[in-house]
Amino acid sequence: MADRKRRVLVIHGPNLNMLGKREPEQYGRDTLADIDAAIKEAASGYGLDVECFQSNSESVLVDKIQSLVGSDVGGLIINPAAYTHTSVAIRDAVLLLDMPVVEVHLSNIYARESFRHKSMISGVATGQVAGFGKTGYLMALMALAERI
Ligand code: DQA
Fold this sequence. Notes:
It contains five helices and five strands. It is α/β, with parallel strands linked by helices. A five-stranded parallel beta sheet has the order 2-1-3-4-5, with helices on one face. 1,3,4-trihydroxy-5-OXO-cyclohexanecarboxylic acid binds at residues 15, 79, 81-82, 84, 105-107, 109, 116.
């Protein structure tokens, strides 16, 4: 089994499977596969083993976060997408975790509609990166690599 501390899970929330086709002026032209490939390439440089996971379902996302309890994963990067702004259930699931958690948004949610300014997750995450597109995931990975 890989060293607990060297394993990272990346969770992408709803509609992020449509990246590339979805509002490219907001989210860029990279597909989710492109982003996951960039994360995995960067992770290997840090000696981190990364799993990337996407779901459009809030309950599936909660189940995936719960699966980290007692696992050998040492850190979580999560873009909860639209659930960022609504999901007490995802917030409560993150509270179960005893590991660094980085919240990532491709866009700068604070420069957009007011309903995106509130994150249910930021208060229970270790930190947040927003507004740097794909690079934000790589920044999150660097932050985790230093902590785990
Ligand atoms: C997002 C921002 C959210 O407000 C939006 O609902 C998303 C993507 C981002 O990565 O910028 O789906 O999380």
